[in-house]
Design a protein that fits this description.
With 283 residues, the chain is of the alpha+beta class. The protein has a single domain, classed as Lipoprotein localisation LolA/LolB/LppX (outer membrane lipoprotein receptor (LolB), chain A), CATH 2.50.20.10. It has six helices and 13 strands. Strands 1-8-9-10-11-12-2-3-4-5-6-7-13 form a 13-stranded mixed sheet. β11 and β12 form a beta hairpin. 38% of the residues are buried.
């Protein structure tokens, strides 16, 4: 099942939704988003996501916590992160699940190196890819098939191909984090913000839930209250008859030390062929 353009855009609806300039824009499908599951995602919770709700906090306090977490990321010029993303989508009786693990190193402005592994349903590693941006072009390399493709940076981001880097990873790579969110602006746009706590696998997290019924989208951030870092992002919604749930777990995130320039350059190995495009899963 290939993602329609509308669902490919879902990976970046989070950024556009949270932007004060675009929060007023409605998507063609104005149906409300399905509720998020117990700890993110719609439908039954997995063993890792089972949790119990805690005390509610004000939307103002929740927004301040999220803004602080994003500001900490923005202060770091270079970041090293590892995450896992799962997408569940269905439309007109067809459903699919896509999982991947990503190791991403970003260096502003718009330079990144990502190693992506597609995962099977049971978590077994599958096809591997390397995606590198040198500031001008994005190189996608599939070593198993001995092929690579080159895409201008602007096309890579404008055509939402960076969705393959994950929702959060795509924002990091583009340097387009939704910082400085204003609760009043979001509220005037019909966006609801709620805060609280949740215990997941014995660990208590701060939770920020952002719901936009007009856009058919809900987001939930789980944050470590001790370090004020985002540990998980859940999205659920409906776009043009496609129902989806996206979960991205941050396994590791830290500022990077001095990085060699070679990390953000790609030299095709001998014997590989250049192709017009390489799709990573549904993207």
């Amino acid at each position: 099942m290939r993602l329609t353009p509308s669902l490919r855009l879902v990976a970046f609806l989070a950024a556009s939704l949270l932007s004060p300039n675009t929060a007023r824009t409605q998507t063609p499908d104005q149906s409300s988003a399905p509720p998020l599951g117990p700890a993110g995602g719609s439908g039954p919770a997995s063993s890792e996501s089972r949790g119990s709700p805690g005390a509610a906090t004000s939307g103002k306090a929740a927004m301040a916590l999220l803004n602080n977490a994003i500001a900490a990321i923005e202060r770091a010029k270079a970041l090293n992160s590892t995450s896992e993303m799962q997408i569940m989508a269905s439309t007109q009786g067809t459903a699919f699940v896509f999982k991947e693990r990503l190791h991403l190193v970003t260096l502003r402005p718009q330079r990144f190196h990502s190693d992506i592994t597609v995962l099977s349903g049971d978590g077994t590693p599958g096809t591997r890819y390397t995606v590198i941006c040198d500031g001008d072009n994005v190189w996608t390399y599939q070593p198993g098939a001995r092929r690579y493709a080159v895409t201008p940076c602007l096309d890579f981001f404008d055509n939402n191909l960076s969705a393959s880097l994950g929702v959060f990873g795509g924002m990091l790579a583009e340097g387009d984090l939704p910082g400085g969110l204003n609760l009043k602006t979001l509220t005037r746009s019909g966006v609801r913000v709620q805060g609280g706590t949740r215990i997941v696998d014995g660990v208590e997290y701060s939770v920020v839930t952002i719901s936009a019924p007009k856009q058919g989208l809900s987001l939930r951030f789980l944050l470590d209250p001790q370090t004020a870092t985002i540990r998980r992002l859940d999205m659920a919604g409906r776009q043009q008859q496609v129902t989806f749930a996206i979960t991205e777990r941050m396994l590791q995130q830290s500022p990077s030390p001095a990085l060699p320039a070679s990390l953000f350059r790609f030299a095709p190995p001998p014997g590989v062929r250049r192709v017009e495009k390489i799709s990573i899963g549904p993207f």
